[in-house]
Amino acid sequence: MDCLLEQLKKEPMLRYIPNKNEIEKLCEQYKIGELVTIDGELGGLFNVNLKINTTIGNYVIRVHSGLSSEIHLLAEKHLLKKLIEQDIPVLTPLNTTNGSYFSTLHNRFVQITPFVQGIPFIFSNEQVYRCGNLLKKFHNALIREEEIPTPNWSNYPSHRVLKQGIYQLVKLQRYIHEPPLITEVERLYEKVMNEWSCLNGDSLKKVVIHGDWHPWNVLFNDKNEIKYILDFDFLQKGERIHDIAYFLWTIRNEKNKKKLGEHFLKGYGPLTTSEIELLPIAIARASLFFLCTASFVANPGRELNEQMQVQKPYIEYLLSDNGKTSIKQLIN
């Protein structure tokens, strides 16, 4: 047990799946009935999301990666309460029997939520419109919030994270054996961030952003209304254009991406002149993130090769006159 704890401390990205005895103790700790079945994982790159069935109902045990922090979880609790007060549909974790927002297991934070089902995302115009509309309400609901703790890890492409990723790639260069690729990542970084700076991207007003706003983090009901927003690990202060850009980035490979993008942006509503100019660059930053952070995964050489094939052509398209025009034309 001591060896396991030490390993989890040393490797924050290492996922931990609780065993049957530990799950039974968690059921008792959260007063959710006796364990009946362990139904398996629901997915998750860093966190473990384990569906279980108890004598009371179905639940999801979420074992966070070692990158989660207590201070951010407590800030999340505060922000979710604010969202609920504004009628924003968020899925909130249960409290333990002693009223805590989370528990701990082997140096990992644990939360439990009811298992909820919804209509699958089918990339319809109505669904993306509702995603845009609710995102605007989300941003407005938290617009008066002051600084909140920055998560230790997120998809938000801050200068710090991007530079840290490149530094790590260079440091690992002799192990990756791909110096030309690393040089190309540095070139793309300079190109994207220079355009971001020239358009004064850092001067945009910052609000509380979701940080991971994509089609699979919302659940719909049978009326095509959003039933729940999921996954608040990446809540932080940032440019609202990032949430918008990240959603557009996630639908980039859909055949009807132009219509989907138009409906999403129509749902969100007016953007400022600066945001419109920066939108193609903000989407390029989302792509750049996955290049720069290839060094943080278990096999950085393979990850860098795979990401370069996918992200480089898209970044170059977004920075071209044709790409910029196409993105801006999505805004009616």
Overall SS class: alpha+beta
Q: What portion of residues belong to β-strands?
A: 5-15%
- Please, what is the CATH homologous superfamily of the largest domain? Aminoglycoside phosphotransferase (APH), C-terminal lobe
Element order: H for helix, E for strand: HHEEEHEEHHHHEEEEHHHHH
> What summary fits the major beta sheet?
5 strands, antiparallel
The counted number of beta strands is 9
Shape: globular
CATH topology of the largest domain: Aminoglycoside 3'-phosphotransferase, Chain: A, domain 2
**pLDDT < 50 runs, ≥5 residues:** none
Kindly report the spatial arrangement of strands forming the biggest sheet: 1-2-3-5-4
Q: Number of helix segments?
A: 12
CATH class of the largest domain: Alpha Beta
Chain-averaged pLDDT:
92
- Give the N-terminus to C-terminus distance in angstroms: 59 Å
- The radius of gyration is 21 Å
Work out the count of structural domains.
2
Provide a concise account of the structure shown.
The protein is of the alpha+beta class and about 325 residues long.
What can you tell me about this protein's structure?
With 332 residues, the chain is α+β, with helices and mostly antiparallel strands. The protein has 2 domains: 2-68 and 91-114, 2-Layer Sandwich (Phosphorylase Kinase, domain 1); 125-328, Alpha-Beta Complex (Aminoglycoside 3'-phosphotransferase, Chain: A, domain 2). It has helices spanning 2-10, 20-30, 70-85, 125-141, 159-171, 173-176, 179-198, 240-250, 257-268, 273-292, 300-319, 321-328; strands at residues 35-41, 48-54, 58-63, 103-105, 108-114, 206-209, 218-220, 226-229, 236-239. The strands form 3 sheets. It has a 5-stranded antiparallel beta sheet with strand order 1-2-3-5-4, covered by helices on one side. Helix 7 (179-198) runs parallel beside helix 11 (300-319) and helix 10 (273-292) packs antiparallel against helix 11. The relative contact order is 0.12.
